Amino acid sequence: MTGPIDLVIDSTGLSIHGEGRWTRHKHGKRKRRGWRKLHIGVSDGLIVASHLTDERVPDGSIAPDLIKQAGSISALTADKAYDQIDVYQAAIDRGSTDLKLLIHPRTDAVISASNQAALRQRDVHVKSIKEDGVLAWRRTSDYYHQSAVENMFFRYKTLLGDQLRARGEASRQVESVLACNILNHFRSLGRPRCELVT
Length: 198
Description:
- The protein is an alpha/beta fold.
- It has a single domain, classed as Nucleotidyltransferase, domain 5 (2-Layer Sandwich), CATH 3.30.420.
- It contains 7 helices and 6 strands.
- It has helices at residues 21-27, 59-70, 85-94, 120-132, 134-141, 147-160, 169-188; strands spanning 5-16, 35-43, 46-54, 73-78, 95-103, 163-164.
- 27% of the residues are buried.
């Protein structure tokens, strides 16, 4: 991709290899089944950034890495888990001059006391939500663009499954990268064109 991109980020859980069904039936539940979080950045139907972490890693701490992988951005859309100063600052550092930040403010968000450049757009969103309500803000701000990443997770889990098959951590990292490349390859083969017929 060339030039600044519109980046949408989020994460989902993938189960990791655990005891088989027969072992659990025979011996009972022996240990907790584990999870990993797949964090991705999507732009124009392609996965442009990805990172696999332990399930305990907060989404906001991985966002700067996803933004860095994506390169130059013109817009960033993310959910409430990314409403953190580090995410805003990382986006501004990699963003174009007219960067559009659509990070959903947390439910208890207040207007920032400081006048940091990184939080100016956030403060506008918080004010708009307080005045017009969250549903009106989502409609008018184009926040529903967030569905692009949710659609990608749906495709991932429908086509490739919701679990990682590799047993080692390094192998799981490779598996997640390969899975993202496979989805991108599917996308490069083409997609249907939608046209409004009147």
